[in-house]
From TrEMBL:
Beta-glucosidases are one of a number of cellulolytic enzymes involved in the degradation of cellulosic biomass. Catalyzes the last step releasing glucose from the inhibitory cellobiose. Its EC number is 3.2.1.21. It comes from Calcidiscus leptoporus. This is beta-glucosidase. It catalyses: Hydrolysis of terminal, non-reducing beta-D-glucosyl residues with release of beta-D-glucose. InterPro entries: Cellulose_deg_GH3, Glyco_hydro_3_C, Glyco_hydro_3_C_sf. Belongs to the glycosyl hydrolase 3 family. Pfam families: Glyco_hydro_3_C.
Length: 128
């Protein structure tokens, strides 16, 4: 029941990474990466919650300056209802990330377009 919850003013910023079948993303940046960097550097006057929808890893150099970051992987047509459930406290935003979220492109091995690729990251893959 939302009537019993205390009111809280927050800024909610939404971001996503465009993706589709048969299309490679040109980088790990979100489509709104520059906006998020500028917004978090500006130190907003109210708590900042960033909602992200992504197909996989995205750059997170701005995330430490946000008050909360929620990541959803390609939720489909129910994404809006799912976000509302989390933001209103009806559902706990729980789960474990199946991947590493790098701060910069240099934190991950660059894409390999050759037929054979050398994997040199050793144990530095996954959680860091």
């Amino acid at each position: 029941n939302t009537d019993q919850r205390p009111a809280k003013d927050v800024i909610v910023a939404c971001a996503a990474a465009t993706s589709s079948e048969g299309y490679d993303r040109p980088s790990l940046a979100l489509d709104q990466h520059r906006f998020l960097r500028e917004l978090t550097l500006a130190k907003p006057p109210k708590p900042l919650v960033v909602l992200v929808i992504a197909p996989g890893a995205v750059l997170t150099d701005w995330a430490a300056r946000a008050d909360a970051v929620l990541l959803m992987f390609l939720a489909g047509q129910a994404a809006g209802e799912a976000w509302a459930d989390v933001l209103l406290g009806d559902t706990s935003p729980s789960g474990k990330l199946p991947l590493t979220l790098p701060e910069s492109e240099s934190d991950v091995q660059p894409p390999c377009e050759a037929a054979e690729c050398e994997c040199v990251e050793g144990l530095a893959v996954g959680w860091r």
